[in-house]
Amino acid sequence: MREGEFCGHTIKSHGATVARNHMHDWIILLLLVIIEVVLNVIYPFYRFVGKEMMTDLKYPLKENTVPVWAVPIYAILLPVAIFLLFYLRRRDVYDLHHSILVGRPRPDFFWRCFPDGMDEYDRWGNVVCHGKDSVIKEGHKSFPSGHTSWSFAGLGFLSLYLSGKIKAFDRRGHVAKLCIVFLPLLIASLVGVSRVDDYWHHWQDVFAGGLLGLVVAIFCYLQFFPAPYHTEGWGPYEYFRALEELRANPQLNPPANGLTLLATEGQVVNQQSGPHSNAFIPLGHNSSSSVVDIESGRRSAFSFSSLIGTNSANSHIRLIFFTGKMPEILLGAHTIRSHGVTVARKHKYDWLILMLLVATEFILNFIEPFHRFVGPGMMTDLKYPLKSNTIPFWAVPVIAILLPLPVIVMYYFIRRDVYDLHHAILGLLFSVLITGVLTDAIKDAVGRPRPDFFWRCFPDGKGVFDPVTMNVKCTGLKSVIKEGHKSFPSGHTSWSFAGLGFLAWYLSGKVRVFDRRGHVAKLCIVFLPLLIAALVGVSRVDDYWHHWQDVFAGGLLGIAVASFCYLQFFPPPYDIDGWGPHAYFQMLADNRNVDQSPSTNTNGLTLQSSELDNVYIQSHHVMATSEGISRNASPILDGMESGRRF
C-alpha cells in the first residue's frame, strides 16, 4: 500500500463506529479481566505430596528472573506499541482496533512448605506444612506456567501480526523477515526457560503454558486477520469488507463519520496489479460479493446457486448482500409434526445401533477388568489417599447429554427445523455412547491401577505381597478393588469431551464463529463447553482417581469421536453451510429435482417459484440486477506487492 492510502479510515472518522460494532467483545474482555483477578485470589487445590515425591521438589527457593509485574508489560504493552506504529504509518483504524483485542507443587515446594528444612507428614503420608501461608499457596500453582502462557499469547499474536505486515511468506527468499517474525517467539521461549532455571516450574508446565498461549493467539488472530501466507494477509477482514460493500453500491451516501471510500482510493488500490491479481470488478460485470457469512441461521445465496439458477424467459437474477445477511429460510416449514416421523424412519437402523450400544455399555460395566501386576516398587505412585468423587458417576450423563440437550431443543423452538433437532440429538447420543463403549472396553482390557490403589487394596495400610511373584494380595472389598483397576482411560473425561465437545462443534456452526468478523466473544461461547469438560478431567486428577495420562487419553478419545460424529451430520462450522445439517440441504436438492419441469433452461439450474416461496422469506437485503450468479468471482483482490493491495 502507498503511504497515504488508508488515511480515510482514522480513529476520528471511523473509531467510534468500529468500537460500537465490537461492543460485546469489549464487554466480554472486561469480564475476562474480572475473572482473572478473582482466580488469582482463590486458593489453589492442595495436592497430596508424600515423602517419596520430595525428590523433585527440593530445588532451592529463588527469586523470579522475570518479575510478575513485567509479564503484562511485554505480553500486552509491547505488541500494542507496535500496533500503534503501524497505525501512525497507515492510518487504518480497522487494523489498530482488531489487533488489540491444578494445584501441582512447584520444584521448590519443599522449602516453601518447610522453611527450616524439617519435614513433617500425617498418617496418610501427606505433608503438614508450617511455612508462610501465602508462600505455600503460591507453591501449588506450578501447572501450567503463567509467565510462559502469557508470553506466548501476547508475543505469539505479535509474531503473526508481523508476519502478515512484512509478508514473511511472499516466497521471495527474504529469510531476514523470518528473523523478525521469530524474535517475539524467541523472547517468549527465553521467558519459559527462565521459569525452569528459577525452579518455579517443571519443564512440563512451561511446555503446556507455551502451547496453550500459542494456540489461543492463533485462534484470536485468525478471527480478525487472514492467515499471514494469504494474499490479503496484510490487513483485517473488516477493512476489505468495508471496501467491498461500498464498491458494491457506489450510490450509497454514507454519513460523514461512516465508511467513506473515495473514488481515487479505489483506483489506487487497483493500480499496478500483478499477473496473478484480480482488480476490483464492478458488480455489474458478473461478479458477486464474497461475503459468505450466515446471519442467525440464514443460508448464503452462493450455497443455493445450484438451486436458484437463471430463467431464459426472464432477466437473469443476481443476489447482492450489502450487510452480509442472507435471505431467511422459511421458519416452521419442517417441524416435528410435519416431518418428524419421516426423518426418524430414515434413520431407524441408526436408532437400533444406538440401542445396541446402550446394551454393550451396560455389559462392559459388569465385566471384571484385567488385574495388572502391582509390585512393592510400584506403590510410590499408588499411595494417594482414597477420596470420594467431586463429580459423582450419576452426574456424568447429565453433563455429557442433558446439558447439551436444552441448547439443541432451544434452537429447534427458534428455527422449527426438525432436521437439525433430530440429527443433533442422534449425533450427540452416538458421540457419547461410542465413546463410552470404547472407554470401558479399554478400561477392562488394560486394568491400570488408580493412584489410590494402595488404600483400596490394603485398607489397614499394611501391604501384603506374594512371596514368589511379589504381586499384591489385596485384603480390601472386592468391588472397591475391581474399581481400582479401571484407571485408563478416564471415563468422566471421555464422556464429558464427547458430549460437550459435540456441543462446542454445534455452537460454533450456529453462532458462525468463523465468519471473519472479529467477534472473539463467540470463541468464549464455543470454548465454554470445552472448559467445563477440561475441569471435569482436572477433578479426576485432584480426586486421585486418575493419573494425568488417563485424563489426557480420555479427553482425546472423547473429542475425536465427537468430531467424527458431528461431521457425519453437519458440515464443518467454517463452511458456508455450517449452520445446518447435510440432510436438510439434500432434501432441498431432492425436492428441486422432483419439481423441475421438462422445459428447464439449458443451464438446468431453475428452481420453481413454488419451491422458492417455501425456501425463502423475502429480505430487504436482497435486490435484483440484470446479471447472473457467479459463485467464484469476487471483488476481493488476490494479489499484493510490498504491502500494496491490487
TrEMBL record:
Keywords: Hydrolase, Membrane, Transmembrane, Transmembrane helix. It is found in: Membrane. One of its GO terms (cellular component) is membrane. Residues 71-221, 423-566 form the Phosphatidic acid phosphatase type 2/haloperoxidase domain. Gene3D superfamilies: Phosphatidic acid phosphatase type 2/haloperoxidase (1.20.144.10). GO terms for molecular function: phosphatidate phosphatase activity. The keyword Coiled coil does not apply. It comes from the Eukaryota. One of its GO terms (biological process) is phospholipid dephosphorylation. The chain crosses the membrane at residues 26-46, 66-88, 175-194, 206-224, 351-371, 391-414, 421-442, 492-508, 520-539, 551-569. Its main location: membrane. It is a multi-pass membrane protein. The keyword Membrane applies. PANTHER family: LIPID PHOSPHATE PHOSPHATASE (PTHR10165), RE23632P (PTHR10165:SF35). Belongs to the PA-phosphatase related phosphoesterase family. This is Phosphatidic acid phosphatase type 2/haloperoxidase domain-containing protein. It comes from Nyssa sinensis.
